[in-house]
Amino acid sequence: MASFLGAFRAMVREDLDAAMARDPAAETRADVAFNSPGLHAIWGYRLAHRLWQRPGARPAARLLSTAVRGVTGVEIHPGATIGRRFFIDHGMGVVIGATAVVGDDVMLYHGVTLGGRSMQRGVKRHPTLGDRVTVGAGARVLGDIEVGDDAQVGANSVVVKDVPAGAVATGVPAAVRFPAVPGSDPYDALFAEPAIFI
């Protein structure tokens, strides 16, 4: 238990650092810790996911995730796999399905859905996001598809096919293109791609 608490504290610190780095409105770590529903949802998910890994505790994991959804407006299934330094800006309306896989340093805006396109049980139905992926507000990433490392998904886009690493996907259905300057910093590229925010 002591090792779990130490690891959990380290994750909390990392998540706070990620929030401070990605949220220009964040003034202090305390402000973010107390007032960020996205962070509260992530922390609730981390506890629920730990419970989910013990089959006898799965009902408790679902209850915890339901309570977190009620408080934050963010629904993350405890079976999802989420990496380090994950950040959800604003939070409200985010849905992450049971078989979704999210890499490290990923950022989602409000209203994002990482959803399924199949009703089949026992198979992977939700997307896999690589490392350093950014998904704009209201975007829908649907099905067992892959969004590669450093890719960006524009606001309100609907993505139903793989997105290569470093690409930008915008529109309904999403069209994929590559930034004008290959190898540019993904965070800086956000400002060159207004469709990420629109």
From TrEMBL:
It catalyses: L-serine + acetyl-CoA = O-acetyl-L-serine + CoA. It comes from the Bacteria. Pathway: Amino-acid biosynthesis; L-cysteine biosynthesis; L-cysteine from L-serine: step 1/2. It is an enzyme of class 2 (transferase). One of its GO terms (biological process) is cysteine biosynthetic process from serine. PANTHER family: SERINE ACETYLTRANSFERASE (PTHR42811). NCBIfam families: cysE, EPS_EpsC. This is Serine acetyltransferase.
